[in-house]
């Protein structure tokens, strides 16, 4: 069940705190969407033949590492309520819906030798229904739910996982390619590698900051490249689709006009986005990453760099394995110089390798530490991607949204945030010539927000997690977003270019 709640005053009166919004129409080919991910919404964690995956294991083994000891066992119960979710999307008027496949729901032990037909049927029904309602599915193959058997093999620290992922990708192309024209291989490898294998802040909770981040990055981009080549060589001619990877980054703004702070910001972008984007779009790791990690490794007395060296064959194999650029972003920070390659030598550490100090402006609107209202930072990031990476002809924003820490149905802060970010996007398109062709709000539903459990709310639809039926209630932002999609305009009167 879901229900609408009417808020009479907000629709016409939202002024975005008197911030002037762009009065240009969104281009005719611009597409709007909403996003979710399998573990965050599906529930049914052990039903109908699904195998255990990393976050099942992590939340059950270390419940104390999740706020309020929450887990995704039921989540939004979208495994049973997927029809309601598609009705919400249909009513909203989106062009596309970004969703992910649960690897272990399709392959309970991770390998193609054991296919769970119940899982195949579940996703087939969703994809068929989306297509029947003229909603394009943007399908992510991996959104952090690694089959637990591969975690036991070392997870993304083990390059062999790239081969298993390639097998899963090929099977997915075979099973669902008739419905899917836009494939995303992997979601946010930076978050997986830095927080999952570097700081221990997310599953699997490993703390290997000196080398785990880089080994994880290597395996992720190799897995992506394998999946891309499989599609390119075996499926593109008949399915006529396209493939990319979702990369996430905040924008790093220099903390001052000093040259060392400007260099610090460039270095920050190289270690965050560049570590994953550079091999795919430009070839090889960013040079500053090669130099800093290599020099610091030598100063630490190591016989070789902690950064895996890509062979010439690997550089060639990974380069140009993306048909468009997928961007997730939520905030901005300032970067200042902290240490050089010969300074602060001690235990190997990813953050010492970067050598910067980061901070936020206390004036920036924010209620969590990872989402902040800085639309000019978003515009800067779009321009950076457009100019920094070779061959990028199109950018699709695959996640962006506002986080609340309590249930707010009249969520004017979210409307304010998304309004200003969409306005900055239009400025990047019209003023700067950045070809941004899509925007995807995170998220359609309030859901399980990883280690934050259910304490952070990013949905434009509220889900009552205390209700066995998981009642859905559209928020004010849902109605506002629906109006923007219908009018293709942020203000009452728009002009055409």
From TrEMBL:
Pfam families: Glyco_hydro_1 (PF00232)
GO molecular function: beta-glucosidase activity
Domain of life of the organism encoding this protein: Eukaryota
Keywords: Glycoprotein, Glycosidase, Hydrolase, Signal
Gene3D superfamilies, alphabetized: Glycosidases
Signal peptide per UniProt: 1-16
A GO BP annotation: carbohydrate metabolic process
Assembly and oligomerization: Homodimer.
PANTHER family the UniProt entry points to: GLYCOSYL HYDROLASE, LP05116P
Family named by the database record: Belongs to the glycosyl hydrolase 1 family.
Name of the molecule in the record: Beta-glucosidase
UniProt organism field: Dendroctonus ponderosae (Mountain pine beetle)
């Amino acid at each position: 069940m879901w229900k609408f709640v009417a808020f009479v005053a907000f629709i016409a009166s939202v002024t975005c705190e008197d911030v002037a919004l762009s009065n240009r129409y969104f281009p005719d080919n611009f597409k709007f969407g909403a996003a979710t991910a399998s573990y965050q919404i599906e529930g049914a964690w052990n039903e109908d033949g699904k195998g255990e995956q990393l976050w099942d294991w992590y939340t059950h083994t270390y419940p104390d590492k999740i706020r309020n000891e929450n887990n995704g066992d039921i989540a939004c119960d979208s495994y049973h309520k997927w029809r309601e979710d598609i009705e919400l999307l249909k009513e909203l008027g989106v062009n596309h819906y970004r969703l992910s496949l649960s690897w272990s729901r399709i392959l309970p032990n991770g390998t193609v030798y054991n296919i769970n037909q119940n899982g195949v049927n579940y996703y087939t029904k969703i994809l068929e229904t989306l297509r029947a309602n003229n909603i394009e599915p943007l399908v992510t193959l991996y959104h952090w739910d690694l089959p637990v058997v591969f975690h036991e093999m070392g997870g993304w620290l083990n390059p062999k996982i790239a081969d298993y992922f390639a097998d899963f990708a090929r099977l997915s192309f075979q099973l669902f390619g008739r419905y899917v024209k836009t494939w995303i291989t992997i979601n946010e490898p930076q978050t997986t590698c830095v927080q999952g294998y570097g700081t221990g802040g997310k599953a699997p909770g490993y703390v290997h900051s000196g080398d785990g981040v880089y080994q994880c990055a290597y395996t992720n981009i190799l897995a992506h490249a394998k999946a891309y080549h499989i599609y390119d060589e075996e499926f593109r001619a008949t399915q006529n689709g396209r493939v990319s990877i979702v990369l996430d980054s905040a924008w790093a703004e220099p903390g001052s006009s000093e040259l060392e702070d400007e260099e610090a910001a460039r270095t920050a972008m190289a270690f965050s986005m560049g570590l994953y984007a550079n091999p795919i779009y430009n070839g090889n790791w960013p040079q500053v990453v090669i130099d800093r990690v290599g020099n610091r490794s030598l100063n630490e007395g190591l016989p070789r760099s902690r950064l895996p060296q890509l062979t010439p064959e690997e550089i060639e194999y990974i380069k140009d394995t993306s048909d468009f650029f997928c961007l997730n972003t939520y905030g901005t920070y300032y970067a200042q110089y902290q240490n050089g390659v010969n300074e602060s030598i001690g235990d190997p550490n990813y953050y010492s390798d970067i050598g910067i100090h980061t901070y936020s402006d206390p004036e920036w609107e924010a209620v969590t530490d990872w989402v902040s209202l800085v639309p000019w930072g978003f515009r800067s990031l779009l321009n950076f991607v457009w100019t920094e990476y070779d061959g990028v002809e199109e950018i699709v924003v695959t996640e962006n949204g506002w986080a609340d820490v309590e249930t707010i149905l009249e969520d004017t802060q979210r409307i304010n945030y998304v309004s200003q970010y969409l306005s900055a996007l239009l400025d990047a398109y019209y003023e700067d010539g950045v070809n941004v062709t899509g925007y995807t709000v995170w998220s359609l539903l309030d859901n399980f927000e990883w280690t934050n459990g259910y304490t952070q709310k990013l949905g434009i639809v509220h889900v009552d997690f205390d209700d066995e039926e998981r009642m859905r209630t559209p928020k004010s932002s849902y109605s506002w977003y629906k109006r923007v999609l219908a009018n293709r305009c942020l203000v009452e009167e728009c002009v055409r270019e």
